[in-house]
């Protein structure tokens, strides 16, 4: 309904704006027509009659003379003029083009009529002269005169109060008519808007294909069918892929266990020469790596397709990290990878809601990652901190590190796998991908950077519990 109201507001706003523009255009046209058809003040018939009355004068010889300028102005307008004597009410002077049908004698009523109206259909206008009344006549149909311009004063005085309600009623009628005529369109748009919103949420859409926008509704329905079909096909492919990975992983484990068992026996056999024992040791090492890779691949597939059940509970992240460190320190018999705890000893608890096994797996992957990339050994630094309702776990080392270009690729694609000719150690493979997936399942983030100790650093950020 919010979108429909917005649409109606848009329509009404557009209507009001267009009505206002139309009104302005009409006023501009009216003003231009008035300037075109209404004579200016200098050529107004009333002004010409007044000027003619003043310009007509009696000479010493007893003749009436009109100035050349006024005669020229009358001739340009096709007008004529005459003078009615005050005493006799007869014409005592006229221009050369006075029509022959014009009477020579006038009564007071005749003078009153020609002053406000016409004389034999000629529009006439009067001007005062010291000897009488000057009458100017123009060609028939040259001017239109309103012969009874009498209105009540209250009409003019109350004009603003009268016009305003009329305008408002007209605007209201226009809006009502406009909304009624567009009601069908608005009714058709509402389900279309709802359908588009459902499409963005990957929901099935079925819009009634009727009304003014039936064609658009049909296309949206067709798009929904296509998207639902694609979504179903993708779901089937993802399920088949996950099942295939799980099946292959299961099938490989049995022969791989036999290879590892026999290779282990050969490695410890005293009857084999040292060179053969070394080869058997390499087989055991690479088989163990293959086993870990299969486990990682299976776990990554389950996390990607939400097939790994999450056993979330309230976990003390500090205790979890400490336990993970102890497990690795117990395995590091040669002390090639000492682990230093950088955390402030006063921080003993940082509660999070997480799957403890998966989170421990993510931390273990990062520690193992530092070991895998530094065969000559390195120091691993662990740290945990609380900041703005988040718990941050850092794993870094002082080993060989990575280049800026590799770091950029790892941050853009944490599962990026650098495939080079070094078959002994696969760098930055599924281990980081699994860490990223585990953090995604915990609404956390992974940040990869250079360590201040010169090596590699990864920070895991997880939301804390609100009640701690």
Give the helices and strands, then pairings:
Blueprint: H1 2-37, H2 45-55, E1 57-58, E2 64-65, H3 68-77, E3 80-85, E4 91-94, H4 108-116, E5 118-119, E6 122-129, E7 132-137, H5 153-157, H6 159-200, H7 214-268, H8 274-304, E8 312-316, H9 317-331, E9 339-341, E10 351-355, H10 356-372, E11 380-387, E12 390-397, H11 404-412, H12 430-441, E13 445-450, E14 456-463
Parallel strand pairs: 9-11
Antiparallel strand pairs: 1-2, 3-4, 3-7, 5-6, 6-7, 8-10, 11-12, 12-14, 13-14
| Sequence stretches where pLDDT stays below 50 over 5 or more residues | 416-428
Mean pLDDT: 81
Helix content: 40-55%
Strands ordered across the widest β-sheet = 4-3-7-6-5
Mind explaining what this structure looks like?
54% of the residues lie in helices and 16% in strands. By secondary structure, it is α+β, with helices and mostly antiparallel strands. The strands form four sheets. It has a five-stranded antiparallel beta sheet with strand order 4-3-7-6-5. Strands 9-11-12-14-13 form a five-stranded mixed beta sheet. The radius of gyration is 51 Å and the shape is rod-shaped. The protein starts with a helix and ends in a 5-residue tail after the last strand. 21% of the residues are buried.
Tags for this entry?
16% strand; 468 residues; 5-stranded antiparallel β-sheet; rod-shaped; 5-stranded mixed β-sheet; alpha+beta; 12 helices
Summarize the structure.
Helix content is 54%, strand content 16%.
């Amino acid at each position: 309904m919010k979108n429909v109201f917005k649409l109606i507001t848009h329509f009404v706003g557009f209507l009001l704006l267009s009505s206002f523009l139309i009104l302005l255009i009409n006023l501009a046209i009216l003003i231009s027509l008035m300037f075109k058809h209404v004579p200016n003040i200098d050529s107004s018939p009333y002004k010409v009659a007044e000027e003619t009355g003043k310009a007509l004068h009696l000479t010493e010889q007893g003749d009436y003379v009109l100035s050349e300028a006024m005669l020229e102005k009358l001739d340009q307008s096709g007008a004529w003029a005459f003078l009615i004597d005050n005493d006799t009410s007869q014409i005592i002077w006229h221009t050369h083009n006075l029509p022959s049908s014009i009477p020579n004698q006038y009564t007071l009523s005749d003078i009153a009529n020609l002053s406000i109206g016409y004389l034999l259909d000629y529009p006439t206008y009067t001007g005062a002269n010291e000897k009488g009344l000057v009458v100017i006549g123009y060609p028939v149909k040259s001017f239109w005169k309103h012969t009874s311009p009498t209105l009540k004063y209250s009409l003019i005085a109350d004009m603003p109060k009268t016009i305003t309600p009329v305008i408002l009623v007209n605007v209201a009628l226009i809006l009502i008519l406009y909304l009624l005529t567009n009601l069908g369109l608005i009714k058709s748009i509402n389900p279309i808007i709802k359908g588009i919103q459902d499409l963005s949420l990957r929901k099935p859409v079925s819009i009634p294909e009727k009304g003014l926008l039936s064609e658009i509704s049909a296309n949206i329905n067709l798009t929904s069918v296509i998207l639902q079909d694609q979504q179903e096909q993708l779901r089937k492919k993802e399920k088949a892929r996950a099942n295939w990975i799980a099946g292959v992983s299961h099938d490989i484990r049995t022969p791989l266990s036999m290879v590892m068992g026999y290779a282990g026996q050969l490695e410890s056999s005293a009857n084999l020469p040292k060179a053969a024992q070394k080869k058997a040791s390499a087989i055991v090492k690479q088989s163990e790596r293959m086993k870990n890779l299969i486990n990682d691949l299976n776990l990554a597939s389950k996390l990607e397709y939400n097939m790994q059940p999450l056993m979330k509970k309230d976990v003390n992240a500090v205790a979890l990290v400490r336990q993970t460190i102890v497990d690795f320190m117990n395995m590091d018999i040669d002390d090639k990878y000492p682990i230093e705890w950088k955390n402030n000893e006063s921080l003993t608890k940082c509660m999070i809601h997480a799957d403890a096994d998966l989170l421990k797996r993510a931390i273990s992957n990062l520690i193992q990652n530092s070991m895998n990339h530094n065969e000559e050994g390195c120091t691993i630094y662990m740290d945990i901190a609380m900041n703005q309702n988040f718990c941050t776990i850092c794993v870094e080392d002082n080993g060989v590190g990575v280049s800026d270009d590799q770091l950029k690729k790892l941050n853009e694609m944490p599962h990026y796998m650098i495939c080079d000719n070094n078959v002994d150690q696969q760098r930055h493979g599924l281990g980081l991908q699994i860490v990223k997936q585990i953090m995604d399942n915990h609404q956390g983030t992974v940040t990869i950077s250079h360590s201040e100790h010169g090596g590699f650093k990864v920070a895991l950020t997880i939301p804390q519990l609100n009640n701690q």
